[in-house]
Each structure stands twice: as structure tokens, then as C-alpha cells.
């Protein structure tokens, strides 16, 4: 008999029929001649009733003996049973233990630090299983969207000699006697690639030496970045709202069960549809001021400001036209000479910034003067400046932090739970 997924059994198609499943013991209890063993696989959990006289003597003994996380193969008849944890029970006629687990170190109410130390085991939990499934849908949906928009997926380098986002969060290392860095963003290389392919995207790890512990920073995260030739700043914003709506709809329709397990309502996600509200930086300052938070023109927004700006919203908020002093060297200057064509997208309810994007500066002299002002080594940016010397065109692009996005979609407290093996300050294990 072929093995089938537990989820398939839970759909009710096999009621009254014989099936075979395989997985790991999730919970177990036995009394007298009966063992109730709840088994999980990647798709779900089901209770197996192992009766003394219904299975081989050794199988029954093993079923009463096997500890949580033992690997098993079970066959039996499917019965609908409202008392069982997931509404169905498998009445076993065979219960084979493939591996007897040692005592599993994880039980209830353990500290966050301990659970991070045993992360290689904790990723088996129902919660992390659900988040990882949602993340998989998310990545797939972004790829699908780019594909629909005729973007090419490209493979930019991770080892670089030029920084996109300034020096303060660079991981530096010795590259055969020369200084090199782990990439903070693929942007500069994507900008080079548009002159060949016009519309490109990349999904790569990005690295930021974030020296403090926060609920929204990782030192290694998966960066979804797009860049398009001839794209104006307004068109970039339209692209972004369409993309976010598309991905939210996909997750809502694909992962209702997982969202529910995490206490998130798929119906709320379905309501996330373009167009989204937009404020200029100056208007955002006004909104903050009305809420009693007075900032000077040129101050950046922190966690508190992000919350004040988005606490009353159900959809993301675009903030555009930032003062040039607080944004990166590559952002296109507006005609006013004060602001840049940059956009930050804040997730609602204080989940914070999920996207940074902009139209790119095309004036080689402005770029040179800004790089000099930042104290950058111009030699390392010669190649980038060449892009403004050979067929320069208007273009725009963005970066979205996959884990920030998933944290918001799943409504999670901490970003670390959006990734199986989080990398934060003081942790590169397991
Ligand atoms: O610094 S960004 O705002 N912008 C860039 O890196 C651009 N060069 C992207 C581009 O235009 N191609 O980072 C982009 C996004 C930001 O909005 C967050 O969602 C995410 O990357 N991000 C992070 N996620 C997790 N952890 C950390 N430390 C982090 N830093 C940025």
C-alpha cells in the first residue's frame, strides 16, 4: 500500500477505508490494552488508536513504549471521530516504529533562549511549520508576480567591494588580502543588469551587522529586490501596491489553515487591496504632530513614529519624498532640491517598514558628490558610475525584507520566528 499524507486523510476522502501514513509521534498515552498515539507529518496530525489485539503483539508493545518524536509507519482504517484532536482517527492494524526517539528535550514552558539553542528540533513545532509554509507561499507568490510582469530572475554576487547602504552595518572580511563585504543589497548590481535585461529581480540573502537586539532586525535576511529600466517613481509605487496585494491574496487563499493556527484571520489579509494610502514625509510629520509627536524636519522615524502613523490602518502606508539628507546616495533628487524620489512602505499596526524603494539618480556628478560626502572610496564605485556614462536611462527599484513581510502577514511578535535558523547578534548556532 502507498503511504499518503495525513492532510489527505483529514479531508475525509478515505473515511472507512484502509490507509498507510508515516511520520513522528506528536503525543502519546496508553492505558490497559489501548494506546492513543498522535502522529504528525509535514501536512497535519492524526490520532492513531492502537488496540492490543488488533495489531501484532510487538507492534502493540512498541506503541506503548515509543516516546515523542519516534519515527513510525502506521496503517489502519480511517474513522470519523469528533473526540479525536483533528476529527479523524486511524484504527491501526499495523504500527511500526522505524526509530525509537531518546527523551525529547523540548517540553512545555521553556525559555526563549533554550528554544533558540534547540532550534534544529523546535522547527518541528506546529507554529514554525505553519510560518515556514506561509513563507514558502510568499516566496512563490513574489516569483509568480515578477514572472507575470516579465521580469528575469538574476543571480547577483554576495561578495562585494562596494556598499549599497553605507558603512555602519557592513560585514567586512579578508578576501585574499583585500577588503570585501557581504552584500547588504543587490541593488547596484541589479542596476547594471537592467541595461541588458530591462526588468530584473533577485531573491538573495542580505547581511547587516545590526549591533542591537530588536524585534525586526536580523543580521542575515532574504531580500527580494526588483529593478526596472524606464520605470518612473509613480509607476514604481503602482507596481509595489499591486505586488503586495497580489501576494497577500495568494497567502490568504493558500494558507487559511496555517494563518488560523497562528491566530491570524485570512479574511483580514483578503482586504489588503491596492490602492494604498500615501503621505509625503512632510505630511507624515504633520500627522505625527497632530498625534502629539513633534519632530524636526529631517528627523528619521523610529518604532514609535511607525506605530503612530499606522495604528489606525489595515493596509500598508507609503511614505514618499524624503529629505535627501536621511536617504541613500543613489536616490533621485526632486526638482525642489530638498527631497528625493524615495518610498518607504510601512506595514499597518506598527509592524514597521517592509519596503524601501526609489527612482535612481542618473546624474553622474550628483552621484560623485554624494559618494564623496559619505567618504566612500570612489574607485570601488567606478563601475557603478559607468552605468550613467553608457546609455543612462530613468529607472527605479526596491527591496523588500522577506522576513519583515512574513512577520506582518503572520502577525508575529518577533522577526526571528519567520526564519528557521535566525541570525541575530550573539547567535550563529545552530
Ligand atoms: O535598506 S533598505 O531599506 N533598502 C535597500 O537595501 C535598497 N538598496 C533596496 C533596493 O532598492 N534594491 O532595505 C530594504 C528592506 C527594508 O525595507 C526591510 O524590509 C529589509 O530590507 N531589511 C531588513 N530585514 C531584516 N533585518 C534587517 N536587519 C533588515 N534591514 C533591512
Ligands bound, unique = 5'-O-[N-(L-asparaginyl)sulfamoyl]adenosine
CATH C-level label of the largest domain: Alpha Beta
Using only C-alpha atoms, the radius of gyration works out to: 26 Å
Q: Can you count the helices?
A: 14
Distance between the termini: 38 Å
Strand adjacency order, main sheet: 6-10-11-16-15-14-13-12
CATH-defined fold name of the largest domain = BirA Bifunctional Protein, domain 2
CATH architecture of the largest domain: 2-Layer Sandwich
Structural class: alpha+beta
Say which CATH homologous superfamily of the largest domain is assigned: Bira Bifunctional Protein, Domain 2
Measured by DSSP, the beta-strand proportion falls in 25-35%
Pattern of helices and strands: HEEEHEEHHHEEEEHEEHHHEHHEEEHHEH
Which shape, going by the Cα principal axes?
elongated
The biggest beta sheet is recorded as: 8 strands, mixed
Q: Assembly state here?
A: single chain
Number of strands: 16
Number of domains: 2
Structure commentary:
Helices cover 31% and strands 27% of the residues. It is an alpha+beta fold and 430 residues long. The chain folds into two domains: 6-99, OB fold (Dihydrolipoamide Acetyltransferase, E2P) (Beta Barrel), CATH 2.40.50; 119-418, Bira Bifunctional Protein, Domain 2 (BirA Bifunctional Protein, domain 2, 2-Layer Sandwich). An eight-stranded mixed beta sheet has the order 6-10-11-16-15-14-13-12, with helices on both faces. A five-stranded mixed beta barrel has the order 1-2-3-5-4. It has a three-stranded antiparallel beta sheet with strand order 7-9-8, with no helix packed on it. A hairpin with a 2-residue loop joins β2 and β3 (44-51). It is elongated, with a radius of gyration of 26 Å. The relative contact order is 0.11. Bound molecules: 5'-O-[N-(L-asparaginyl)sulfamoyl]adenosine (NSS). Residues 164-165, 185, 187, 208, 210, 217-218, 221, 223, 225, 353-357, 397-401, 403-404 line the site of 5'-O-[N-(L-asparaginyl)sulfamoyl]adenosine.
